[in-house]
Amino acid sequence: MQALLADGRLTPGVRVPSERDLAAALGVGRGTVAAAYERMRASGHLVRRRGSGTWTATPTEAPPLPFTPAPSPAGTIDLAHAAPTAPAEAVTEAGHAALAALPAHLCSAGYDVVGLSALREAVADRLADEGLPTHPDEVLITSGSQHAHSLVARALVRPGDRVVLDQPTYPNAIGLVHDSSARPVPVSLERSDDGTLDWDVRALAAALRESTPATAYLVADQHNPTGAVMGAATREGVVDAFRRHGVPIVVDDSLRDTWIDAPPPPCLGSFAGPRSESTVITIGSLSKTVWAGLRIGWLRAPRALVRRIATTRASDDVAPPVLGQLMALALLERHDELAATNRARLRAGRDHLLRALPAALPDWSVRRPGGGMALWADLGAPRSSALAEAAPRHGLVLASGPRFGVGGAFESRLRVPYTLPLDVLDDAVVRLAATWDDLDRAPSVLTTVV
């Protein structure tokens, strides 16, 4: 059970079988199970609740550390963030186009709380092309997808509420739940017989039934950090489960266009249908297909929710910057071209890292993702946090596996991005191997990040 909790396949807050039932299922004496349960209660992995049995837990309930590495010395290689470098020519041209278009907007105050109408129309057209018919009034422009998620959380989540999350998931989504004084409800992805990952519809339905969450956050395409893609049949089941329980889903489509081997199924929001439009709230940005430095994103939601968010935005960032929106508008006109170029770079990086990493670290195991921006490496030992602590001594910045999970899970995992130039990836792998070797020579004290 401790191993299952460590790698995220068993999540905190799950009721375990009684001592008698588990002993019968395993064919061992009840005393053996009772002794194991007692050891896990002592270590904090199980808790007994009066009148309701024994439940899985984690040794500490501390919130995760912020996913923001400190400033690093020159020459440090950043493997903590997975994002592309900018297509310099395209971004520069978009800047010139934005400056040329800016004078037409200078006669206003520049406070358009929902965003420029032309950009909202362009985003709506983009979503319609993905199979999700959208009116511009259903779009609100934000400062990136994380900002969009934050605005939705402010509107829908109250202190003490529960929020369903993938397990593992994007670290800043976990951080947002804690910042909202809410409680994360992690639901593990399941691995099929052929080794592919998908979402467990029955587990999600059980979480909805038992925890009555305020909302959920899912990454259905090129999942961060595993690269998994939710199957079409699974999408139907997920949307149906959330519809039946009346719980809205925030689906992050920021990575949708980073597929490499094959395009994903239609976007999750397209499975909701017009009668249940409030079931799925779609957020996205240009950060993963163009450049994160633009800080332009959006959310697609029912008109009533967009208006509700807009009225509360004044205490946040008031309105998105006009110049950045004009740049985004110019870049969206070239989105297909830029996304294709980005995919070619990602394919080269992925294939290169799939050769380099096993050669340098043969005890690690990695699976070939069909898209996304990183490998989700299995270290074969629970040393991810120790590795991340030691990495700066070798000029590396890493994001340890537990940052991507609730309750200290994934101590045997490490996300390794392939977004850097190939020669930099080679250097990073050499440094990573040296750091790993140092752990064997002088093991550090393991500090679990939860």
TrEMBL record:
Gene3D superfamilies: Type I PLP-dependent aspartate aminotransferase-like (Major domain), Winged helix-like DNA-binding domain superfamily/Winged helix DNA-binding domain. InterPro entries: Aminotransferase_I/II_large, HTH_trans_reg/aminotransferase, PyrdxlP-dep_Trfase, PyrdxlP-dep_Trfase_major, Tscrpt_reg_HTH_GntR, WH-like_DNA-bd_sf, WH_DNA-bd_sf. SMART domains: HTH_GNTR. GO terms for molecular function: DNA binding; DNA-binding transcription factor activity; pyridoxal phosphate binding. PANTHER family: HTH-TYPE TRANSCRIPTIONAL REGULATORY PROTEIN GABR. In the C-terminal section; belongs to the class-I pyridoxal-phosphate-dependent aminotransferase family. This is Uncharacterized protein LOC110428928. It comes from Herrania umbratica. The gene is LOC110428928.
